[in-house]
Design goal:
This protein has 480 residues and is an alpha+beta fold. It contains ten helices and 23 strands. The chain is 23% helix and 35% strand. Strand 12 and strand 13 form a beta hairpin.
């Protein structure tokens, strides 16, 4: 007699397929029920008006403080779920002179029409809304499971995003979406949690919409809005803006270099840095705003100063556009010199997971070497001298460091002054007269004899003189 039987492994596989199918079926029901309860079944567009704050991610005053903010008197977002597209119109409150931290004021109007070339971070502004999430989950093989958080039970609907990270939506017992979370890559913080929390749902013309929206990235809020008005299915003819000039697809510009003195080389190609030929090694000041930028700096430094290792990298401050190249230097075995307030923070960053977009350090982990300094440190080999100073009373960053080269009379500075593309032209959009005055005050306090400035945000390739900076500070003082 022949007996046919199913092995344990085969049974487990079949059970997994059955449970996955059941979970998918349950997810469709949960999504449908939430859509109906929220009044979103026939929602094609929505426009909401709010007031609140937007915060500059990665631009904190120090390694332990939250992202600095910009306050909107009115914030109006129009969303077309069918295009899909969104537009934001902002009216800002006056910027306080006491504001601490970096970052640029967002544009008064911002428009995104999502297509195949739209980066995932911008798409998330759409799919992480409660109604965008329901649409995305319904078409991306979502699953669901019950989960208790803070004593409350949620139906957690999950689908896989295009960046291979999970997107989770937490639906409460009222069938309202309370939170949407996912993870995105950042060159500094790696696999970074991004979450939007929605509370205080109210009825606006049959649509349940949250009266409070808080989005967090990297532990701190990046958006905090109080909603005052909502218009379901409002007109939303959102047209794509004209393409901006420039571009480059995130690749650094061609790297060039020139001598500032014997064995001292200015490296340009995006952000500026300086490489110095010490007796047995190379010192690099400022490490680029990306891994690609750091790679270019390392390559150029070793080309102009051959057959020597890079021993030190001086980091001006912890803002992400000035620290996104650090992990590449860590992978090279370079010791990072930074303000002492960043030491533990950078050591932690070296060990954070980078699985969504593995960088060089993630592929070949290495223990970071970080040295902290206080207000002054001098690097010398008996010939070359680099004097490092912390800018006192900076409102841009607590640990903002400048590098002075006394023999060359050169000062490298990051964000103290950002000159325009043409000498003595109108101020750069990233200029700040308060930062300018602080830099000048510190130069006078330290009695530095500066002839040439190297702004990290370098204006093309032209030389930048201290005389031009002096004129810029005077113009800023007269306009205040």
């Amino acid at each position: 007699m022949f007996k046919k039987f199913i092995g344990v492994g085969t049974f487990a596989t079949i059970l997994t397929i059955f449970l996955s199918a059941a979970s998918a079926q349950d997810a469709r029901t949960v999504i449908s029920d939430a859509s109906k309860a929220m009044g979103a079944d026939n929602l094609k567009t929505v426009q909401f008006t709010a007031s609140g704050w937007e915060y500059a991610f990665g631009q904190a005053m120090n390694a332990k403080s939250p992202w600095p903010g910009f306050e909107s008197k009115t914030y109006t977002r129009t969303i077309n779920f069918e295009t899909p597209a969104w537009r934001i119109e902002r009216v800002f409150m006056p910027l306080s002179p006491a504001r601490r931290g970096g970052g640029l004021l967002p544009a008064a109007t911002q428009t995104i029409v999502i297509n195949a070339n739209t980066n995932w971070a911008q798409q998330l502004d759409h799919w992480m809304t409660p109604y965008g999430f329901l649409r995305a989950a319904a078409t991306n093989n979502a699953t669901v499971q019950s989960q208790k958080v803070g004593g409350k039970t949620y139906s957690v609907v999950t689908f896989m995003a295009q960046n291979k990270a999970k997107v989770n939506g937490y639906i409460n017992d009222q069938k309202m979406i309370e939170k949407v979370e996912t993870w995105i890559d950042n060159p500094v913080t790696g696999d970074t949690l991004l979450e939007s929390v929605y509370t205080g749902y109210k009825d606006f013309g049959g649509l349940k919409f949250p009266s409070r929206i808080v989005r967090r990235q990297g532990d701190y809020p990046v958006l905090d809005l109080t909603v005052t008005d909502v218009k379901p299915n409002a007109p939303a003819n959102i047209q794509a803006p004209a393409p901006a000039g420039g571009g480059g697809g995130g690749q650094p510009p061609v790297t060039t270099s020139r001598q500032l003195g014997d064995g001292v080389f200015l490296i340009l190609g995006g952000y500026a840095s300086i490489a110095v030929d010490f007796k047995d090694y190379i010192v690099v000041v400022e490490g680029g705003n990306s891994e690609a930028g750091a790679n270019a700096i390392i390559t150029e430094a070793k080309r102009v100063i051959p057959n020597k290792p890079i021993k030190y990298l001086v980091n001006t401050h912890n803002h992400f556009d000035h620290s996104s190249g650090l992990r590449r230097f860590m992978a090279e075995g370079v010791t990072i010199i930074t303000h002492e307030g960043n030491k533990q923070y950078y050591e932690k960053l070296a060990s954070l997971p980078h699985t969504l977009n593995p960088d060089t350090l993630a592929k070949a982990p290495k223990k970071a070497s970080v040295e902290g300094m206080k207000d002054k440190r001098v690097l010398t080999d008996g010939n070359h001298v680099i004097e490092l100073y912390r800018l006192v009373s900076s409102t841009h960053n607590d640990g903002l460091i400048v590098a002075y080269f006394p023999k060359e009379k050169v000062l490298l500075e990051g964000d103290g002054w950002n000159p325009p593309a043409e000498a003595d032209a109108a101020p750069s959009p990233i200029n700040n007269s308060i930062y300018n005055k602080n830099l000048m005050d510190n130069i006078h306090r330290l009695n530095l004899n500066v002839e040439t400035l190297v702004p990290v945000h370098y204006p093309g390739t032209r030389p930048v003189s201290f005389a031009e900076f002096t004129r810029a500070v005077a113009k800023g003082a007269s306009s205040n």
